[in-house]
Design a protein that fits this description.
7-stranded mixed β-sheet, 387 residues, 15% strand, Aspartate Aminotransferase, domain 1, alpha/beta, 41% helix
């Protein structure tokens, strides 16, 4: 997979600039976010439901009184960490580290670790998976190893993972649970084999990335405390605050204390901190929204799966993986037709060979989902027309 999964090639640099920049930067692509103005936006796994009007007003009043002329008070961040510990029901001996979204936490983890020989080390993850694992690894000059998932059901290939772990002794092993973009939970026994292989190495962390936990039926959080090498990462983006950019890493207190040394001192703004505290105080509203999304997901999967020539994989997230053809060209044609009809989804057909012909769709509001199905039906018809 490329350093970034999207984005145009960079413009040529002057020779003296190119000689100054690292090869990893020059050879990469910027992560481009496609414009969505005027479109039904179903490409980024966002919560489609805004806050109720009364909560919008209450949040606005709280934000209006913040001291935005001052750097964030460490006590403010401590309050949020305490609120997250309570929200997650963390036992004594476990703590939380805050990040500007999960992306920053992934970058900080790459900065903090090393290989058993003192080198920057190896990062290992199943593929297809979240692109930022590889991005952060390569920008930190780490070796990145992607281990293919099973071709039919995107299950975890435990023997291949264990072999790769024994060979590379990675500093970081990421297991997204549910996985992105396949939206599935990995088999419990396969997960246990991967964890045991890392622990047997006596080196490296297993990081369970549970960004989509609000929509999943199971979690790996119970593994926290079983070993200092096990960490769990979550985010408030899928909770309903994608615009706030607040991720958090959970693990043993002594491990979090070490990792926190690489975190910039003011990485979370006062606005983000207050929004996150407000959301946790009103967690019941976001839980209600998550239930609606899960209900919509099941209905949408049924409708999509009934379309001729379409394969729809079961989902444990707020996204659905869909195969709309046997080639990247077919997926591209369907994607373009959907966009022309005012619906924006993610074309991931070129991101990994296992995703050939695939699109990824966000579960939207009932009205958005109806429009999606209607437009997809037309897009499929258009793509099958001769010429």
């Amino acid at each position: 997979m490329k350093l970034s999964d999207t984005g145009p090639d960079a413009r040529p640099c002057a020779p003296e600039v190119a000689a100054t920049l690292r090869d990893e930067v020059l050879s990469s692509h910027a992560y481009a976010v496609p414009p969505a103005t005027g479109l039904i936006k179903l490409d980024a796994m966002e919560n489609p439901f805004p806050l109720p009007a009364a909560l919008q007003d209450a949040l606005g009043q709280r934000l209006a009184h913040l001291a935005v002329n001052r750097y964030p008070d460490p006590a403010h961040q401590a309050s949020l960490r305490a609120a997250l510990r309570q929200h997650e029901g963390l036992a004594d001996g476990l703590d939380v580290m805050l990040g500007n979204g999960s992306d920053e936490l992934i970058a900080l983890l790459s900065q903090a670790v090393r290989g058993p020989d003192g080198s920057p080390g190896t990062v290992l993850a199943p593929e297809p998976g979240f692109v930022m694992y590889g991005v952060s690894a390569r920008l930190n000059r780490q070796n990145y190893v992607g281990v293919p998932l099973k071709a039919d059901d995107f299950g975890l290939d435990a023997p291949a993972m264990v072999t790769a772990i024994r060979e590379h002794r990675p500093a970081l092993v990421y297991l997204a649970y549910p996985n992105n973009p396949t939206a599935n939970l990995f088999d419990d026994e396969a997960v246990a084999q991967v964890v045991d292989a890392v622990l047997a190495n006596g080196h490296g962390f297993v990081v369970f990335d549970e960004a989509y936990q609000p929509f999943a039926s199971k979690s790996q959080r119970a593994r926290l405390g079983q070993s200092p090498q096990i960490l769990v990462m979550r985010t408030l983006s899928k909770f309903g605050l994608a615009g706030v950019r607040l991720g958090y890493l959970m693990g043993p207190t002594e491990v979090i204390a070490q990792l926190d040394k690489v975190r910039p001192p003011y990485n979370i703004s006062v606005l983000n901190l207050e929004c996150a505290l407000f959301a946790l105080e009103h967690a019941s509203e976001f839980a209600r929204q998550a239930r609606l999304i899960r209900d919509q997901r099941e209905q949408l999967c049924g409708l999509l799966g009934a379309l001729p020539g379409v394969r729809c994989w079961p989902s444990q997230a707020n996204m659905i993986l869909l195969r709309v053809g046997d080639s990247d060209a077919q997926a591209t044609a369907v994607h373009a037709s959907l966009r022309a009809q005012g619906v924006l989804v993610k074309n991931i057909s070129a991101a990994h060979p296992l995703l050939r012909g695939c699109l990824r769709l966000t579960v939207g509001s009932p009205e958005e989902n109806i429009a999606l199905v209607r437009s997809l039906h037309q897009a499929l018809d258009d793509s099958r027309q001769p010429g």
